[in-house]
């Protein structure tokens, strides 16, 4: 029921939110973790697959491109993909605040899958870049909506934990993207300078197409499975659909009861006023001094942090190649590094709730810098280079999942996806700076100077994040009324 002022007036809705806040365990089917995670697996597969495969793509589609000069062409598709992120997240994410998280999760994954399929069948460099834009449009919005959804259904004491569990699938996607690229798009080379079983050859130069085809298949499976997801009960209550929200929360309570008796709901954990989604979410956020400050701070933090993330995620192989590693050897170092990403995500799922969200970014900066030093000092010691790469990939990803949680927690339910889109989605432009501005100057630097420059942006982001709100183990409506 809605009052003349537009406010949803429902004591039943407040009680439902209080019932949701008392849940201490994951109370949806564990299958849903895999369903949501499969979307993240595809998303990060797509982000990382260009890291190794782009050299073969460039040679196939761009006249005059060779393995030696492919780095010169890399910034454009990465930048266009990130531009798609910004457009997609700004246009599509607010729609999720209006029509629901689940419905938009289906739409965004459809767009990303079509973009990947388009990439697989691109006939020239122009079409390849158009496909990267389309894929970026879907991915940018999908990241915002997934993180919003998780923050709204996960137990209060474990929002960052379950964001990180989903992030494990991201790590597996990155691992698959780089290793499959190494297998399909590089020639067989004796280990450790390459993979002896890699299959690229004069008779097989289309491995990059198969990679994007795999991405499209992953997206198709994710779409089918996402039909099983329930809608966010918080969003339903904002719509005045208390009965539907009650059905979802009742099912969650029944599952939680398997772990023990439930505490009594505390109405103080729910907002005293339940507001419906704004017709203009951007206006709702920018008209509030509180949310204007949060938008500015979080945007700058993400923008600067993503300079480091994308310099490594999309360009580490090309960066190493420009710093005089052979392409197969650079690909192997990057591929081994992804094991650090997976290990980090698994370990963080157990410890992420031990610290406030903002404390993880300084730790991430230290780990990344340590890895950079090892790679720079490795010389011909491939084992030391592998260790450094593992630390780099662990470090530049270590802060992402707790900061995803912090970002989603920093905005109200009525405009949560929109707020996430504004800071994280637009913040991806920092990744474009990393590839477009930072990467071209690296060949003029020593390997130590180059890697320290890339990593140093995390230090700045680590300082900025210390000014964000305390959110761990606080009710969402208390953090963001």
TrEMBL record:
Residues 32-473 form the Major facilitator superfamily (MFS) profile domain. One of its GO terms (molecular function) is transmembrane transporter activity. Its main location: membrane. The chain crosses the membrane at residues 25-45, 73-92, 104-121, 133-150, 162-188, 208-227, 295-313, 333-352, 359-378, 384-407, 419-441, 447-465. It is a multi-pass membrane protein. It comes from the Bacteria. The keyword Transcription regulation does not apply. GO terms for cellular component: plasma membrane. Pfam families: Sugar_tr. The keyword Lyase does not apply. Keywords: Membrane, Transmembrane, Transmembrane helix, Transport. It is found in: Cell membrane. InterPro entries: MFS_dom, MFS_sugar_transport-like, MFS_trans_sf, Sugar_transporter_CS. Signal peptide: none annotated. SUPFAM superfamilies: MFS general substrate transporter. This is MFS transporter. It comes from Arthrobacter terrae.
């Amino acid at each position: 029921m809605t009052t003349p002022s537009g406010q949803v007036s429902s004591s039943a809705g407040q009680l439902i939110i209080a019932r949701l806040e008392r849940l201490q365990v994951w109370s949806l089917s564990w299958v849903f973790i895999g369903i949501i995670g499969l979307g993240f697996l595809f998303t990060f597969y797509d982000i990382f697959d260009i890291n190794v495969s782009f050299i073969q793509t460039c040679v196939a589609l761009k006249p005059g491109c060779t393995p030696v000069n492919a780095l010169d062409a890399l910034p454009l598709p990465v930048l266009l993909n990130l531009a798609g992120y910004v457009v997609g997240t700004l246009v599509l994410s607010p729609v999720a605040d209006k029509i629901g998280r689940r419905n938009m999760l289906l739409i965004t994954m459809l767009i990303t899958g079509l973009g990947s399929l388009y990439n697989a069948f691109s006939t020239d460099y122009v079409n390849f870049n158009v496909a990267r834009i389309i894929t970026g449009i879907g991915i940018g919005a999908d990241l915002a909506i997934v993180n919003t959804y998780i923050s709204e259904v996960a137990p209060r004491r474990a929002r960052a934990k379950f964001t990180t569990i989903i992030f494990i699938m991201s790590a597996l996607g990155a691992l698959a993207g780089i290793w499959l690229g190494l297998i399909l798009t590089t020639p067989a080379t004796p280990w450790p300078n390459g993979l002896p079983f890699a299959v690229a050859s004069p008779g097989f130069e289309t491995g990059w197409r198969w990679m994007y085809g795999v991405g499209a298949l992953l997206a198709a499976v994710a779409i089918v499975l996402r039909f099983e997801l329930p809608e966010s009960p918080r969003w339903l209550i904002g719509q005045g659909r208390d009965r539907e929200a009650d059905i979802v929360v009742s099912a969650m309570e029944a599952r939680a009861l398997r772990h023990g008796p439930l505490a009594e709901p505390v109405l103080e954990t729910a907002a005293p006023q339940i507001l419906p989604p704004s017709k203009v979410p951007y206006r709702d956020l920018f008209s509030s001094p509180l949310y204007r400050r949060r938008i500015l701070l979080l945007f700058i933090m993400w923008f600067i942090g993503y300079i480091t993330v994308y310099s490594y995620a999309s360009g580490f192989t090309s960066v190493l190649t420009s710093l005089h590693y052979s392409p197969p050897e650079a690909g192997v170092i990057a591929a081994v590094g992804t094991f650090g990403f997976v290990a980090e995500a698994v370990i963080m799922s157990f410890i992420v709730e031990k610290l406030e969200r903002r404390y993880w970014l300084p730790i991430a900066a230290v780990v990344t810098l340590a890895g950079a030093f090892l790679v720079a000092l490795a010389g011909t010691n491939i084992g030391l280079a592998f260790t450094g790469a593992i630390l780099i990939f662990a470090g530049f990803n270590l802060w992402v999942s707790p900061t995803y949680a912090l970002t989603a927690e920093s905005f109200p339910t009525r405009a949560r996806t929109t707020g996430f889109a504004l800071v994280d989605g637009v913040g991806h432009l920092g990744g474009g700076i990393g590839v477009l501005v930072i990467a071209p100057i690296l060949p003029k630097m020593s390997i130590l100077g180059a890697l320290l420059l890339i990593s140093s942006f995390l230090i700045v982001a680590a300082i900025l994040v210390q000014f964000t709100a305390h959110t761990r183990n606080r009710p969402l409506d208390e953090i963001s009324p």
